[in-house]
Amino acid sequence: MIVIMQQSATEEQIQHIIDRATKLGLKANVSRGVERTVLGFIGPEDALRTIPLEVFPGVEQVMQVLAPYKLVSREFKKENTIIKLPYNTTVGGNKIAVMAGPCSIEGYDAMLAIGKKAKALGANILRGGAFKPRTSPYDFQGMGEEV
Question: For 89-131, what is each residue's pLDDT tens digit?
Fold first, then answer.
């Protein structure tokens, strides 16, 4: 990770960033230019991502050296990922997987009708949620008893 300090950054502000990163196990490399100080950090950057460095006094810009999604990046894994699902369905192969379905399942009959319509339109994966993403999963009380 690279942190570019503002031209007006004080030594205390620079040292504060270095101290925070060092406590998280990173090694700091300090480059003092004519107009800017640049801090380069080496080590487990994931720990540093939990701290919003951009809001600290004296920080101008924070740049990631590697992608924050290392486990799925091409830097980490060169070959394509293919996920095998039941009924000879794959995601990530040569055939495009089309997934469709409601954001919230409201009953068996509705889900069956949506599934049939989705399949007729070319979907090969049916999905459905138990709650709407904008609500908390702890708020969902279920569908209630059928009468």
Answer: 999 988 899 999 998 888 899 999 999 999 999 999 999 987 6
Give the Cα separation of 22 and 18 in Å (integer).
6
DSSP line for 101-129: --SS---HHHHHHHHHHHHHTT--EE---
**Overall pTM > 0.85:** no
Q: H or E stretch including 63?
A: strand 59-63
Residue 9, sorted as left (phi over 0), alpha (psi -120 to 50) or beta, turns out to be beta
Average pLDDT, integer, range 15-26: 89
- Alpha-carbon span 89 to 144, nearest angstrom: 33
- What is the three-state SS of 2-39? EEEECCCCCHHHHHHHHHHHHHCCCEEEEEECCCCEEE
